[in-house]
Structures are given as C-alpha cells and as structure tokens.
UniProtKB/TrEMBL annotation:
InterPro entries: DegV (IPR003797), DegV_C (IPR043168), DegV_domain_contain (IPR050270). Pfam families: DegV. The keyword Glycoprotein does not apply. It comes from Pallidibacillus pasinlerensis. This is DegV family protein.
Length: 280
C-alpha cells in the first residue's frame, strides 16, 4: 500500500526538507485588510513581521477550504492508496476538521487525519516520522499508532512577549490575558486538551526561558533519545544562542532551529520563543 503524507503550512518544515521526504503541504493564509497571502508560498516569516509593524489592526488567519483538501486528496488518489494528514491543534484551528470532512468526500483513497494537538515544528516532527515510516512501507494504521505513541510523550512550552495578540485572536481567555498584562509577566504556555493555556506565570523573559529549559532537562536526563526544536518569532540570533547552549548541555539530543511563521506569529506576536521535544 502506498501512503502519502500531508501536513499544513504551520508545521514550518523547510521546502527542501518537505521535498526530500515527499511531504505534501496545504497552506493556511493570513489576511491583511483585503489582501490574503498563503503562508510559506506567498509570504515568508520575515516579510510578515515587517508588515505587522506597520498595521494598526491584527491580521486575520484563515484555514484551507474543504475544497482545497478535496482537490489535493483527489490528486493523491491517482498514485496512492491512503493519505495521513497531519495538522495543527483542533483547539486553535478548524484545519484538522477540514481534512476529516474532505476525507469523507473523496473516493479511491483512505484518509487518516491526525490532530497533532500542537503546531510548528513539533507538528513537523510527526510529519517527518510518518514520511519515514511510509517510505519503509509501514501500513497506515501502524503509522497512526506510532504517531499517537509519540504524542503521549511529546512536550512543548512557549512564552510570548505580549499577550495582546492571543487575547484578540481568541486563542487565550481574556481573563488570562488581563492578569498577565497587569502583572507584566512573561507567561509560559502550553497545550492542554488541544487548547493554549498558561502553564506558569513568570516575571521576566530570562526566567521564562530558564524555566522551559528546566522542564526540558527533566526529560532529557531520563536517557531516552530525543529530538527537539527551538522556535522563535523573528528573533533568530537570540534563538541561535539558546540553541547553542542547549546543544552544548545535551550533546545526545537532535536539535533543530525553527520559527513561528505568519499564521502562528499572528497570534503569538513578535518576540515569542518555544521549545518542543519528543522521543526519536
């Protein structure tokens, strides 16, 4: 059985890596006024953050239409028997549900939709693992089982420089945003049951990053081989410095540097940082 792997643009897997692993990408979009841009295709992260600085209003984000999914799945049906479609958390976007709906509409290919319950390169790790297994001829049911095993052991924490965007975009409760603003904290956030919620409220960015490193250390010291990613919102030099510190401290962990692109960056805002990891 030939199995195709699909993910959406919020995995932020570099194009050359997607091509090497035969991963198909369906884009989400950001909308500035009347202009819509497909992320990773029509707008890159650096240009997005530059545009954000000049806008008075927060851009909107849109998920792929069901029709876009149907078109992609029907195209894949010509060469594949099944598709595993891996998407950002269903608690912050309807993209996963769009894949489910489209999968019920197409004929000639079986669609397995996977809710990463996260986003960014952690979502990308699932897609890369699925692609590796598919290339080895592993059956779709077994790939899905593996992805769910990884999900149970994966972790991701992030901090934002300002809670305003998360509050405006409805991705964090107003009460949490208000409390954070009053206390001038740099909250550490994570996903719980598909939603973004505060993990701890911490006073400074330095302490927030140190706390995330501490949480990572707890798992890294257990001896299980890990893959991890440092993620940033237009703060590449700072992210590289953090990455170098982690690589020196944990030489047995496979690290990747990634970024919060336009769609996720809309909600987190410039200056956000994250660290995610899962077993290799």
């Amino acid at each position: 059985m030939r199995t195709a792997i699909v993910t959406d643009s919020t995995a932020y897997i570099p194009e050359d890596v997607r091509n090497q692993n035969n991963i198909h990408m369906i884009p989400l979009s950001v909308v500035f006024g009347n202009e819509s841009y497909k992320e990773e295709a029509e707008i890159k992260a650096a240009d997005f953050y530059e545009m954000m600085r000049t806008q008075k209003e927060l851009p909107k984000t849109t998920q792929p239409s069901t029709g876009m999914f149907v078109e992609l799945f029907e195209k894949l049906a010509k060469d594949y028997d099944a598709v595993i479609s891996i998407h950002l958390s269903s608690g912050i976007s309807g993209t996963y549900q769009g894949a489910v709906t489209a999968g019920e509409m197409v004929e000639g290919i079986k669609v397995y939709a996977f809710d990463s319950e996260s986003s960014c390169m952690i979502q990308g790790f699932y897609a890369l693992e699925a692609a590796k297994l598919a290339n080895e001829g592993v059956e779709p049911d077994a790939i899905m089982k593996r992805l769910n095993e990884l999900k149970a052991k994966s972790r991701a924490y992030f901090m934002v420089d300002d809670l305003t965007n998360l509050q405006k975009g409805g991705r964090l409760s107003g009460a949490s945003a208000l409390i954070g603003g009053l206390l001038q904290v740099k909250p550490v956030l994570h996903f719980v049951d598909t939603k973004i919620v505060p993990f701890e409220k911490i006073r400074t960015k330095k302490k927030a990053l140190a706390r995330i490193t501490e949480l990572f250390t707890e798992d890294a010291k257990k001896g299980t081989p890990l893959r991890a990613c440092v993620i940033h919102a237009n703060r590449e030099e700072e992210a590289k410095k953090w990455l170098a510190e982690l690589e020196e401290q944990f030489p047995n962990v496979e690290f990747t540097l990634s970024y919060f692109g336009p769609v996720i960056g809309t909600h987190l805002g410039e200056g956000a940082f994250g660290l995610g990891w899962m077993p290799q």
